[in-house]
Amino acid sequence: MTASTFDILDLGSVPYREAWDLQHRHHQRVAAGEKPTLLLLEHPPVLTLGRKAKDGQNIVVTREYLASQQIEVLEIERGGDVTYHGPGQLVAYAIFPVGRKIVDFLRLLEQATIQALNTLGLPDARPNPGYAGVYVNDREVNGKVYAQKIASFGVAVKRHVALHGIGLNVSTSLQHFDLIVPCGLQDTQMTSVQREYDLRGLNREVTMPEAKQALADAFRDVFAGYDWSVPEMTPQPASRPTSPARETRTPL
Fold first, then answer.
1. Using one digit for the tens of pLDDT, what is the confidence trace for 187-209?
2. What CATH number is given for 7-222 in this structure?
3. This prediction's pTM
4. Which of 134, 179, 183, 215 is catalytic?
């Protein structure tokens, strides 16, 4: 594979609804046979509810409180439960053809994220069998052992092409995860690259450009042998209405 097999676009910080429209615009292109695209961006604070969210029962504060903090709540079509996006979290939307290889695709997302975290100096990054996402080593807090989740995954596949993807906590405000039971998981704490640096006494700061480059390089490597063909299908209407949205492209 050459570096041009798929585009990598750095969109900066984009409100969630606007990014949602952008995802669907790119999804329509890729489903029509055009070049796959990896979107890298951050969001202002927002909670999103996946298909398992059950009306937001894992949000532990009132909707009125969230509104007072200007934190929007949106129901979306990805898998999974509730999650948080906000500044300092690297969001990667892989608009890639998947077909029926959904589990294999998720494993590749895990592999790319783990490789990026290794590059960033966290050699213990790993999958957690039975759960989507990437974790680092468990940590004992007040006599209780908690899993340490550093990246969350959630995808949807329509017309054989993926939407949504990865939320990697780089320097995220982890206090915002106290608003929810992240992904509906008990006995799990959310962590970030910066928190791991601090707790491990590494005396360094992570930057978002550094994290984006590490993840972009990992995607290029991990997806080097990927099957980029889109299965034959009967043309279908767009999966949801979209509105015009700003798109600033910064290739990586």
1. 889 999 999 999 999 999 999 99
2. 3.30.930.10
3. 0.84
4. 183
